[in-house]
């Protein structure tokens, strides 16, 4: 009811607009964008109906990367799921692993040792920086013309991102798709000299973030992002938007602080928010988050406690992970928002694999904002808005 | 491992022009070499980057590895590209689009399958919506294994492709290097492009759907497919039996 | 308010207003009669401040006879979660159970985000959402046959001429 009233009052765009009753000022034109389009961050298709240059209706079509992960996970044991979910949000695989392992740990009632919890927090924050760097680089390409050539920001951001990839490679042996978390703890311990390396990388990145902000402090960038794609707080909440997109709409909500997991209740941090709800506010929030994450990562690496990485009764074989029955929803905060894992255990007499495994992807909700936000904008804004939502198609389609 | 497809054309409109000038035909072999030298040192890439491997593809294009150094450059439109790098999982919904984009690329063109998803479907190969390897749809020249392959591995793949083009120009055959046993084990239901058992109906249906993007299944394809598969199996078994018989006869003959 | 206090308040609210057995709190939330699905969501949104739409998870349960029990006929279970934002964030979760063929009323009128989540569950599991404004497949092509996450759907189902 609330939804309908807001559409009727013209506050939100109308995703269900009946075009047969719509009278266009200019010619009504149908424009297809994607699924192979350089700015759609993967394979994503959106069909736009244009009245002149103005969008009147947008219909997104996800699913071009639907890989049936949920069905696949029903066939695998809980331990085997970890490397599979890596591939969902492939820009932040660490957090995917953590999400599924946290769900299994909760269902089994396993305590994770303190060192593993701190290490997980550290990895999550490093991953957040890497993910936001990738976002900033691709956002630079999306708004290409505004930044004099477009790819320069991308090149800079990837230079820094590679450093974090090196750190992860040093720890886990893989650039991404790490498979380093397991039920009850972590697999790989910190190698010698790694902590020093982390600190150097963090200092390097922190210094360069100021440079990006200086590059983007530019009237054309501001014109292309300010007051573009405004999502108000009510729409953001109703749509289930989370993470930086929600915080850019002025809602002070962050699972790391409001429903703490890992070691987030043991360390100090601020949650940056912005109030514009537009593309620029999302950019501000992400940049502030990067700085905050770097600060947190420094605290975490300094305070990394000694101790074992797995519990007293380590899980050695998949068969040891057995859950009779139960359901759990566990959520954590990824760079894109609330990544939830809903596991239904038990069912058809197989205790080693889930009966139903569902991932609640933050990107799916971000993308679903498009039909509500796009009407009234120009075609060129589509790229800016889609880019600022930072969807990852592997996660949208799974 | 490289697949050699005799049906592939490596012709170029410029050759035809050259041949029209009398006296220049002597120079064409040299021109041929020149053009292919140019082609292999400026492989413009059309990234069919669908998922995780696409991120590694971006990393190869970015500052550290930077395949710009070898004259490779990303173009976002198929009409300006020589190489399609298929990086990522291709689904049933996406495959017709890939096929169509491939058909839009001008000859000569090459395809690099990057990552195990593009090669064989990876662990998604049994899933209802994933196609088990892009080579069941379009011909592939170079396979770059890994999940995901490092940027360096993609570079190596592009160098192999350059080598392959050079061999082709010199009239030499590229020999598929691989382990046939493995290939047999993960053989997909739909045979790879260029495989002797591949049904022509499959090709036709794939082309038709890619061009119309009408995804409704042709009604009699399944029956024809099953029948053809059964026939191929019977023929193979008959051949094997005949070979076994011949071997047995040989043995007997030897004894006698 | 901490998450534990919210949980206690939620359980009391559900029992008082909707007569739902919520003590002890079952995993995945209590089962709510399907007629009260929308009313419960509306009350949680308006009165208790659960304004953030989180998830909708449908699961398919084929006919089953537990040892020494009666036949449990084939049914769908749809779990829904709403979150309160800010300090002490908490998820209010509940489930509804419907026989195959019956629909679940949609929440798309209350939460814009329910639109796509419900479309996805319809696409993959096959639950029908009544009065949904735009119930089409989300992930799979329009002409796809069957719903892959149902238990009777084979994982390796082919789809000629592509796989
Ligand atoms: S091969 Fe691995 S990294 Fe590449 S697309 Fe497939 S799952 Fe992703």
Order of helices and strands of chain B: HHEHEEHEHEHHHH
The largest beta-sheet of chain B arranges its strands as 2-1-3-4-5
Low-confidence stretches of chain C: none
Query: What's the main sheet of chain C like?
Result: 3 strands, antiparallel
Element order, helices and strands of chain C?
HHEEEEHE
Shape by Cα distribution of chain B = globular
Ligand inventory: iron/sulfur cluster
> For this structure, what is the CATH homologous superfamily of chain C?
NADH:ubiquinone oxidoreductase Nqo5 subunit
Mean pLDDT of chain B: 76
Mean of residue pLDDT of chain C? Answer: 84
Q: Please identify the structural class of chain B as seen in this structure.
A: alpha/beta
Q: Provide the CATH architecture of chain C.
A: 2-Layer Sandwich
By CATH, the topology of chain C is Beta Polymerase, domain 2
Low confidence ranges of chain B:
1-10
Percent strand of chain B equals: 5-15%
Give the SSE layout.
The complex is a heterotrimer of chains A (398), B (256) and C (163).
Chain A: H1 2-8, E1 28-33, E2 45-51, E3 54-61, H2 69-75, H3 78-85, H4 93-108, H5 114-142, H6 151-172, E4 181-182, E5 185-186, H7 194-216, H8 219-225, H9 233-239, H10 244-248, H11 255-258, H12 279-303, E6 326-334, E7 337-345, E8 356-360, H13 362-368, H14 370-373, H15 379-389, H16 393-397
Antiparallel strand pairs in A: 1-2, 2-3, 4-5, 6-7, 7-8
Helix pairs in contact in A: 3-4, 4-5, 5-6, 5-12, 5-15, 6-7, 7-12, 12-15
Chain B: H1 13-20, H2 25-41, E1 44-49, H3 52-61, E2 73-74, E3 83-87, H4 95-104, E4 110-114, H5 115-120, E5 142-144, H6 151-169, H7 180-185, H8 200-212, H9 221-255
Parallel strand pairs in B: 1-2, 1-3, 3-4, 4-5
Helix pairs in contact in B: 1-2, 2-6, 3-6, 4-8
Chain C: H1 3-18, H2 37-47, E1 52-61, E2 75-84, E3 90-99, E4 103-105, H3 114-124, E5 128-130
Parallel strand pairs in C: 4-5
Antiparallel strand pairs in C: 1-2, 2-3
The complex binds iron/sulfur cluster.
């Amino acid at each position: 009811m609330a939804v309908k009233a807001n559409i009727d009052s013209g506050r939100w765009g109308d995703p269900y607009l009946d075009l047969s009753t719509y009278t266009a000022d200019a010619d009504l034109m149908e424009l297809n964008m994607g699924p192979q389009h350089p700015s759609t961050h993967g394979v994503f298709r959106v069909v736009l109906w244009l009245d002149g240059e103005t969008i009147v209706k947008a219909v997104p079509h996800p699913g071009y990367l639907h890989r049936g992960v949920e069905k696949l996970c029903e066939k695998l044991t809980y331990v085997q799921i970890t490397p599979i979910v890596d591939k969902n949000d492939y820009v932040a695989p660490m957090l995917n692993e953590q999400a599924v392992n946290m769900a299994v740990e909760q269902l089994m009632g396993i305590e994770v040792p303190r060192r593993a919890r701190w290490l997980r927090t550290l990895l999550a924050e490093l991953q957040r920086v890497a993910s936001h760097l990738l976002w900033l680089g691709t956002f630079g390409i999306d708004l290409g013309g505004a930044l004099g050539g477009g790819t320069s920001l991308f090149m800079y951001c990837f230079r820094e991102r590679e450093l974090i990839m090196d750190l992860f490679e040093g720890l886990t042996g893989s650039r991404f798709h790490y498979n380093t978390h397991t039920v009850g703890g972590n697999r790989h311990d910190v190698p010698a000299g790694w902590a020093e390396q982390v600190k150097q990388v963090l200092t390097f990145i922190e210094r360069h973030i100021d440079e990006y902000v200086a590059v983007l402090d530019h009237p054309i960038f501001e014109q292309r992002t300010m007051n573009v794609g405004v999502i108000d707080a009510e729409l953001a909440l109703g749509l289930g938007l989370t993470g930086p997109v929600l915080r850019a709409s002025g809602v002070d909500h962050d699972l790391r602080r409001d429903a703490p997991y890992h070691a987030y209740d043991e360390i100090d941090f601020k949650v940056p928010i912005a109030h514009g709800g537009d593309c620029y506010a999302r950019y501000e929030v992400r940049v502030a988050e990067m700085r905050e994450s770097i600060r947190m990562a420094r605290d975490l690496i300094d305070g990394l406690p000694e101790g074992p990485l797995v519990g007293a009764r380590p899980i050695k074989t998949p068969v040891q992970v057995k859950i009779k029955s139960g359901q759990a929803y566990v959520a954590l905060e990824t760079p894109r928002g609330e990544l939830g894992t809903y596991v239904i255990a038990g069912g058809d007499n197989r205790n080693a694999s889930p009966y139903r495994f569902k991932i609640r992807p933050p990107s799916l909700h971000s993308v679903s904002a498009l039909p509500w936000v796009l009407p009234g904008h120009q075609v060129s804004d589509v790229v800016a808005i889609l880019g600022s939502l930072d969807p990852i198609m592997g996660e949208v389609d799974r | 491992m490289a697949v050699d497809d005799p049906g592939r054309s490596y012709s170029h409109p410029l050759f035809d022009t050259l041949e029209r000038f009398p006296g220049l035909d002597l120079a064409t072999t040299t021109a041929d070499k020149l053009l292919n030298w140019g082609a292999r040192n400026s492989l413009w890439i059309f990234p069919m980057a669908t998922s995780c491997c696409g991120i590694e593809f971006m990393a190869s294009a970015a500052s550290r590895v930077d395949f710009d150094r070898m004259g490779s450059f990303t173009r976002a439109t198929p009409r300006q590209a020589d190489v399609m790098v298929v990086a990522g999982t291709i689904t049933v919904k996406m495959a017709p689009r890939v096929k169509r984009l491939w058909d839009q690329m001008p000859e000569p063109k090459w395809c690099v399958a990057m990552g195990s998803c593009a090669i064989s479907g990876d662990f998604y190969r049994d899933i209802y919506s994933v196609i088990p390897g892009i080579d069941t749809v379009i011909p592939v020249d170079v396979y770059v294994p890994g999940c995901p392959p490092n940027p360096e591995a993609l570079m190596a793949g592009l160098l192999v492709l350059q080598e392959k083009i050079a061999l082709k120009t010199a009239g030499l055959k590229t020999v598929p290097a691989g382990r046939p046993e493995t290939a047999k084990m993960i053989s997909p239901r739909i045979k790879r492009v260029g495989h002797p058992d591949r049904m022509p109906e499959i090709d036709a249906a794939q082309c038709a759907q890619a061009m119309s993007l009408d995804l409704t299944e042709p009604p009699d394809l399944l029956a024809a497919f099953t029948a053809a598969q059964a026939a191929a199996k019977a023929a193979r078994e008959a051949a094997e039996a005949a070979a076994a018989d011949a071997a047995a006869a040989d043995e007997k003959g030897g004894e006698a | 308010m901490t998450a534990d206090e919210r949980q206690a308040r939620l359980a009391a609210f559900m029992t008082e207003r909707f007569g739902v057995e919520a003590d002890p709190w079952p995993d995945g939330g209590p089962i709510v009669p399907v007629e009260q699905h929308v009313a419960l969501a509306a009350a949680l949104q308006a009165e208790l401040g659960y304004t953030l739409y989180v998830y909708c998870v449908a699961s398919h349960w084929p006919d089953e006879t537990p040892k020494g029990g009666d036949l449990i006929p084939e049914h769908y279970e749809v779990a829904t979660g709403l979150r309160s934002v800010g300090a002490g964030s908490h998820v209010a979760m509940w489930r509804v159970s419907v026989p195959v063929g019956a629909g679940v009323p949609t929440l798309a009128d209350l939460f814009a985000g329910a639109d796509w989540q419900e479309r996805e569950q319809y696409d993959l599991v096959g639950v029908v959402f009544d009065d949904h404004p735009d119930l089409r497949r989300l992930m799979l092509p329009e002409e796809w046959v069957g719903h892959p996450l149902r238990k009777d759907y084979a994982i390796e189902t082919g789809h000629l001429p592509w796989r």
